[in-house]
Amino acid sequence: MQDLRFAARTLLKQPIFTGVAVATLALGIGANTAIFSLLYQTLLRPLPYADAERLVFVWNTYPLMGLPQASVSIPDYLDRRGQATAIEDATLFRAGDFNLAEEGRPERLRGLIATPSFFPTIGREPFLGRGFTEDEATPGRDQVVVLTHGLWTTRFAADETVVGRDIRLNGLSYRVVGVMPADVEMPSRDIALVVPFAFTPRQMSDDERGNEYSSMIARLAPGATIRELDAQMKTIVDRNLERLPSARAFVERSGFTGYAVDLRDEIVGDVRTPILVLQAGVLVVLLIACANVANLLLMRAAGRGRELAIRSTLGAGAWRLVRQLLTEGVVLAVAGGIAGLGLGVAALRGLVALTADRLPVIAGASIDVPVLAFTAGIALAIGVGFGLLPAFAVARGNTNEMLKDDNARGSAGRGAGLTRATLVVAETALALALLVGAGLLVKSFARLADVDPGFSPDNVLTAQIGLPAARYGDAGARRAFWARLLDRVGALPGVTAVGLTSNVPFSGRVSSGSYSIVGYTPGPNEAPPHGRQEVVGGEYFAALRIPLVAGRLFTGGDAAGAPPVVVVDQYLVDRYLAGKDPIGQQISRGGETRYTIVGVVGTINAIDLGEPVAKERIYYPVAQVPQMGMGLIVRTPLDPLSLVPQVREAVQAIDPEQPIYDVRTMNQWVARSLEGRRTPMLLLALFGAVALALSAIGIYGVLAFAVAERGRELGIRQALGADRRTILRLVLGQGLRTAGLGIALGLAGAFVLSGYLGSLLFGVSARDVAVFGWVTVVLAVVAVVACYVPARRATRIEPMEALRQS
């Protein structure tokens, strides 16, 4: 306790030193706390399911068709659950939209449509009420619902009597049978309720194979492995081909089978690499901050050399001195850790608010016990290190020499000076490596932002609308609704074009499927055509300014009962109809219906600007293929968001119980699609800027202290005839040699480490010469400026004043 009090008094007597050291540590520890919170949330935390290590996602795959991951059909699910011995239990589910019409404005909710086995498979049951019975998973008896804890608390005020009551969903009465615990995470984001997945006899038949729109989670049997499950799924496919020989050609050309993925790996997805890169980046910042504070402590210890020597002469043992310096280091680090924790909390809140929409896996990140332990561990390790480093430097000093020196300023010796220089070299090298990584990501993002998606996202409003089957089960009712909606919204002031689409670009909604082209036969080793399928209506192409290349767009004549028609993109024409007139060609997608190509439009990139378009796109008219859910596309010269109230009123004028949701501008959708690349780029650039500033401060501090230590020597040199230019070159050369060695080591390290950024880069080599060159120049200029200031001060030392101190 005495050591703590003495350490606190000593540090408070030097408020500038203490403030700079604590702020520097807080910056490094705070950044690490925030990013480690994300890393823990995604990669390390226990998942809130029983025996989560046995849970896997199961997918279909068609590798020879360029479709590595596909959803699962109901027959595939039934086959695997019933025949794969590696599976103990399994569930099939899909997301669905529900209109909750209680009191007030109708609310659009995201729901999960899941088999009754959902609850035992994930190992969690409702904490109020119950889950579903098998009888309730049959058509006509499936109007029961389990609420999530979030919906129960926000919409029903945590009223336990809601279990057993009826609520109105999609125009039908649903009985509430249970409420899920608060800590259960649903497989999709923003899920508010769960209803039974009721299979019809047709859905369970072989006719449904290939109709893939659901996801599957399986619980592995004790001792079973993913490899065993993959092999059993392939065996099931082979077994089905013996029973369905007509499917053999397609399976062999597409490579169809199933595969399993560990639940955590599936949840994390492509977030793993950015998180690890960011964690490496903040560790670099922390190391640089530690190097700076270590240099400050070494300088401070050198200045206290005479004091410590006197204490040693008066009887203080070596351990007593080391313990005191160790205590001061720990107190300094704890203060920095507390300040860093506060900074980390604020930074984490900002990161979650900015990125949770696009990266839902980090939405639950918080400063919990493991994160607090991480922060405390960092602070303690830094404190011990900071205490030992100056203690060893002082312990190596000569007590008699320190006592003979009357100067208030002492020196811990040549070893301490070498240590300080080594720390500057290290932080310069680390700063350069971090700046190179940031530079590569910035250049990559700039290239990505310049990619032309094939349409114009400016001044476009989008909104999703889902029609309930209870009132719009008839195709004619759906056609009438969409036609009236187009008329009403198109008549709004400021609207120049309005359209409909089943897949709003960059919204994450993607529909694809196999089809055939009349007169085209794939080669013996060629997969059948497989492309994006989209239903559009109104002036969709004009609203997004997708150019017409050939033929015509849809017209009012392409109505129900008229010859089926499609519009295709240029990608399809180039791939399958090169050298032919595409207009009049026909395609077929299941059954005997043939669709005539009446137009060709430009190819658009509507999924990921960082990936080239790899599949063709086929557009169907909504009048001929009326959908339950569509996205509204509105072009206007006004601020698109200013039209939201009028659009909402137009929808509710047609149906008062019909809400709109996912209301965004098209530019917001594009920005959201880039968030996974923008956030790492911005954060790494920020860390790089901090590292550059800390490195400059470190170079300046060490050189300024060296000038102060060598004041007498530099004064004598001037007295013996050295001019100021010589002194400037001498001091500047000392600093630049140190910085130059750091830059050289940093370039070597950056060359090796930049290869790990490959998956995050677009249109930029991991060893981009321009980035390496510019970063080197910037750091060199900063180093020159940091060296010049103390070097210039050295030239102003008065020889007589320096000699008087001898």
Which features would summarize this protein structure in a list?
alpha+beta; about 800 residues; 12-stranded mixed β-sheet; elongated
Describe this structure in words.
By secondary structure, the chain is α+β, with helices and mostly antiparallel strands. The protein has three domains: 52-269, no CATH class; 413-451 and 671-806, no CATH class; 469-656, no CATH class. The strands form two sheets. Strands 12, 13, 14, 15, 16, 17, 18, 19, 20, 21, 22 and 23 form a twelve-stranded mixed sheet that branches. Strands 1, 2, 3, 4, 5, 6, 7, 8, 9, 10 and 11 form an eleven-stranded mixed sheet that branches. It is elongated and about 105 Å long. It starts with a helix and ends with a helix. The model is unreliable at 405-412 (pLDDT under 50).
Quick gist of this model?
With 806 residues, the protein is an alpha+beta fold.
Secondary structure elements and their pairing?
Blueprint: H1 2-12, H2 15-44, E1 55-62, E2 67-70, H3 74-83, E3 87-100, E4 107-114, H4 118-122, E5 128-129, E6 144-147, H5 149-155, E7 166-169, E8 172-179, E9 191-196, E10 215-220, H6 226-243, H7 248-254, E11 257-262, H8 263-268, H9 272-303, H10 305-313, H11 318-355, H12 369-395, H13 399-404, H14 414-449, E12 460-466, H15 469-472, H16 475-490, E13 497-501, E14 512-514, E15 516-517, E16 530-538, H17 540-544, E17 548-551, E18 565-569, H18 570-576, E19 586-588, E20 594-601, E21 617-621, E22 629-635, H19 644-654, E23 661-665, H20 666-673, H21 675-709, H22 711-719, H23 724-753, H24 769-794, H25 799-804
Parallel strand pairs: 4-9, 6-8, 16-21, 18-20
Antiparallel strand pairs: 1-2, 1-10, 1-11, 3-4, 3-10, 5-8, 6-9, 7-8, 12-22, 12-23, 13-16, 13-22, 14-16, 15-19, 17-20, 18-21, 19-20
Helix pairs in contact: 1-11, 2-9, 2-11, 2-12, 9-12, 9-14, 9-21, 11-12, 14-21, 14-23, 14-24, 16-19, 21-23, 21-24, 23-24
